[in-house]
Inverse folding.
């Protein structure tokens, strides 16, 4: 029975956790290891605090990583991510979160259906006011016509409305 150092075990697991990295099966075959042993190492070492996880990083540290990696070439970026135990998807997510937090909310857009109904309501209100004015004017004419008929005694047939 062969014993392996903790450093060797961790390195195997870290290689399998890299984005696009080899599978546990291929690593086991390449290093003449038993597959169930490698899976046991993964259970033991993948979740330990010694393995760096991006979930425990502070916002300041994440911003610092975004700034540091912004000028790196693709090869340098890959090396940086491996050395810090990060995935490119972590970095992309951090960037997206940062950018979305910087965009001002501005004025929220109305639902198109709601905007359409508000426009229709304004048109109906305007039409209603116009008709109320016309009705008031006609009422005033009728009242004046009746008053003139009372004052002057004219026949209704003579006047047309």
């Amino acid at each position: 029975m062969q014993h392996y150092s903790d450093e060797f075990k961790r390195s195997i697991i870290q290689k399998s956790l890299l984005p696009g990295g080899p599978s546990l099966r291929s690593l086991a075959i390449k290093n003449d290891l038993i597959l169930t042993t490698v899976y046991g190492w993964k259970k033991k070492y993948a979740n330990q605090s010694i393995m760096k996880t991006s979930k425990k990083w502070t916002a300041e540290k994440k911003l610092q990583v975004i700034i540091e990696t912004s000028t790196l070439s693709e090869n340098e970026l890959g090396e940086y991510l491996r050395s810090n135990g990060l995935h490119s998807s972590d970095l992309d997510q951090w960037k997206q979160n940062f950018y979305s937090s910087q965009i001002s909310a501005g004025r929220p857009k109305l639902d198109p259906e709601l905007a359409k109904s508000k426009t229709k309501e304004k048109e109906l209100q305007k039409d209603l006011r116009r008709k109320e004015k016309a009705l008031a004017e006609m009422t005033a004419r009728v009242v004046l016509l009746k008053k003139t008929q009372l004052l002057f005694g004219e026949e209704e047939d003579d006047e047309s409305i």
Observations:
- The mean pLDDT is 82.
